Amino acid sequence: MENDLPNIRNILIHYGATIRGTHGQVNLRCPFHGDSHQSATANLDKNLFVCFACGVKGNSLQIIAGQERISIREAVGFLS
């Protein structure tokens, strides 16, 4: 199922994150709050994100749904 999801790296970049890596586990400043430290992590291979400061977490569809305040079903077509 992970391969069917939008790429978490692209989603986080869409919301303003700066991500240097292309695979594996990366630490980053959370794009969802005024983060001044790298309080978030993303597993680019497993398509997962979590911010330990603000609590935003999930796969790419869950991130889209939460940020856009739409359903998972609506999030599927968000980037189309």
Q: Would you write up a description of this structure?
A:
It is built from three helices and four strands; from the N terminus they run H-E-E-E-E-H-H. A hairpin with a 5-residue loop joins strand 3 (48-51) and strand 4. It starts with 7 loop residues before the first helix and ends with a helix. The protein has a four-stranded antiparallel β-sheet. It is an alpha+beta fold.
Any key phrases for this structure?
80 residues, alpha+beta, four-stranded antiparallel β-sheet, 26% helix, globular
Query: What's the oligomerization state?
Result: single chain
Average the pLDDT over all residues and give the rounded result: 93
Strand content: 15-25%
Structural class: alpha+beta
Neighbour order of strands in the largest sheet? 1-2-3-4
Total beta-strand segments: 4
Order of helices and strands: HEEEEHH
Ranges where pLDDT stays below 50 over 5 or more residues in a row are none
Q: Major beta sheet, specifics? A: 4 strands, antiparallel
